[in-house]
Amino acid sequence: MLADALLIAGKDLRIELRSKVGLGQMLPFAVLVLVLFGLALDADDALLTRATPGLYWIAVLLAGLLAVQRSFAVEAAPGVTDALRLSGLDPAGYFLGKFAAIAAQLVALEFVLGLGVVILYGTELGGPALLFAALVGATVSIAAAGTLYGVLAAGLRVRDTLVPLLLLPALAPVLLGATRATEAALEGDLGDGWGWCGLLALFGVLYLGLGLLFFGTLLEET
Amino acid sequence: MTTLTPTGSDATRERAGAPVGTGSRATRVLGVLILAGSALGAVLGLVTSDPDVVQGDAVRLFYVHVPVVTVMYVPVGLCCLGSVMWLRKRTDGWDALASSSAEIAAVFVGLGLVTGSLWGEITWGTYWTWDARLTSTALLFLLLLGYLALRRYPAAPDARSKISAVVGILLVPNAIIVHYSVDWWRSLHQPATRGFDWAIDGNQLSTYAVAQVVFLLLLVWLAIHRFRLAWLELQAERRDLEVALVQRAADDDFSGGLGA
Amino acid sequence: MIPEPMIVAYTDVGTVVTGWGITTGVIAAYAWWMVRRGRLLSRSVPPEDRRWS
C-alpha cells in the first residue's frame, strides 16, 4: 500500500514540478486573494490585523480547492484511469498518494501565504508550537477531505462547481478550528487554541479513515 | 423483468380507472388527518391560544418552528440509512429512500431556517444571528443542497447512485461535527444558543402537541409520496435506457450491412 | 437569562402570518408537485412495478 502511495504521490508531484501549474497559477492565485481582501477591506490595518487568521485560511481553502480539482483533472485524460485500474494499484495506496501530493502542495501554499500575511497585513507571528499544530491538523484535514470529495469530480468528468459545493460545507469545522487556533497563537492567549487543534486532529484522522474506506468504491466509477 | 411496451393493455387498464400515481389508501387517510389537524392547529395557534408572557405573539411561530426542527433530523438519518443499505444491497428501494429523504430533509431544514429567522426578527429585531443552532442548521442546509446537486448530475444511474451513497453516508458525520464545533465556537463567547427556554403555559401545551403531531404525520405523508416518486423515476429511467439500447441495436443491425 | 432591554411587547403579527404562510405555501406546493409528477410518471411505468395500492 505504501509503495503504491509513494508511486502516486511522486507521479503527481513530478507532474506539478514539470507543468508548473502549481507554481505559476495556484500560488499567484492565493496571493491575489490576499491582495483582493486588502482592497476590499479598504486597507484598514486594524481590521486586516484582526481578520488575518480568517482571511489567511479562506485563501488557503480557495487555493486548496484548485489543488484538489487539478489533482484529479490530470487523471481525466482519456485512458489514464483505465491504465491506473489495470495496473492493479491498491485503492488505499492510491488514496494516500493523492492525499500526500495535495498535502504537499497545501504546505507550499501555506508557507507562501504565511509570508504574504506577514508582508501585506503586517502580521506578527507568535505561539509557534500552536501555529505548527494548527497547520498540520488543517493540512491533513483539507487534503483528506479534498481527496475524498475530489475523486467525485473525476467520477463525474470534472464538474467545477460541484466539488466546492460538496467540500466547503464539510470543511467548515476545519475553517473554524484553524482560524480560532491561529488567532489564539497570534494573540498569545493559548488557552482554547489547543482544543481547536484537537478538533482538527480528530477531523483529519476521521477523514483519512473515511477516505481509505470509500476511495475504492468511488474509484470504480471514474 | 419489465416489458418494453409502455403502451398497450397496461395503459388501457390504467385509463379504465385503476389507481394511478403515488397515492394509496394509507396516504389518503393520512392526508385527511393532516388537513383536519392543520385546520385545528391553525385555529389554536393563530387565534385561540394566548400570547406568551415573555415572547408575546412570537410564540405563534414556535408552533411551526419547533415541530419543524425536531422532525427535520429524521429524513437526514433516513438518507444516511438508505445510502449505507444501498452500498450493501444495491437495490432500487434503498436508493429511492436516500434520494427522497434528502429532498424532504432539505425542505424541512429550509423551513426551519426561515421560521427561525422570522422568529428572531420579532424577538431580537434581526433576521440573522450567528448563534450555534442557526449557523449549524444553515451549514446542514448547504450540505443537503450539495447532495441534491450531486443527485441531479447527469450520469449513468449506477455511478450516480454509488457516488451519492458515499456522500449520503458522509452527511451524518459532517452534520455532527459541524454541530459540535459550531456549538463550542459560540459557547466560547456567550451562551451557545440565544433562544430562551420556552416555559410552556396554559393552552400552549395542547396547541404545541397538535402542531407536533401534524408535522410528524406530514413528514410521513411527504416521505411516502416522495419515496414512491423516486421509485417511479428510477423505473422510468431504466425503461428509457432499455428502449434506447434496443433502438441503438436495431440501428446498428440496419447500417452494419453497409460495411461501415 | 433574558437581557433586560429585550422584555418588550413582541406583537409582530405580520411576521407570524408570513411565517405560517410561507410554511403552508411551500409544503402545499411541494406536495402538489409530487402528486402531479407521480401521476405523470406512473403512466409510463406498468402497474406491476408499482407495488402499492
Question: Which tags fit this structure?
Answer:
heterotrimer; B: 260 residues; mainly alpha; 76% helix; globular; disordered N terminus; C: 53 residues; 1 helix; rod-shaped
Can you characterise this structure?
The complex is a heterotrimer of chains A (222), B (260) and C (53). Chain A has 8 helices and no strands. With 222 residues, chain A is mostly helical. The longest helix of chain A has 30 residues, at 91-120. The mean pLDDT of chain A is 87. Chain B is built from 8 helices and no strands. In chain B, helix 2 (25-48) packs antiparallel against helix 8 (204-256), helix 3 (59-71) crosses helix 8 and helix 4 runs antiparallel to helix 7 (157-187). The A-B interface holds A 148-149, 152, 155-156, 159, 162, 165-166, 168-170, 172-173, 176-177, 180, 192, 195, 199, 203, 206, 210, 214, 217-218, 220-221 and B 87, 139, 142-143, 145-147, 149-150, 153, 155, 159, 162-163, 166-167, 169-170, 173-174, 177-178, 181-182, 184-185, 188.
- Share of helix among residues of chain A? over 70%
Q: Strand count, sense and closure of the main sheet of chain C?
A: none
Count all strands of chain A and give the number. 0
Q: For the largest interface in this structure, which chains are involved and how many residues does each contribute?
A: B-C, 55 and 39 residues
In the predicted model, the low-confidence regions of chain C spanning at least 5 consecutive residues are: none
Query: In whole angstroms, how far apart are the ends of chain C?
Result: 53 Å
Overall outline of chain A = globular
Protein structure class of chain A: mainly alpha
Order of helices and strands of chain A: HHHHHHHH
**Which value, in Å, is the CA radius of gyration of chain C?**
22 Å
Strand content of chain A: under 5%
Task: Give the count of helical stretches of chain A.
Answer: 8
Mean pLDDT of chain C: 78
Tell me about the largest β-sheet of chain A.
none
Return the average pLDDT of chain A rounded to an integer.
87
**Beta-strand content of chain C:** under 5%
The number of helical elements of chain C comes to 1
Low-confidence stretches of chain A: none
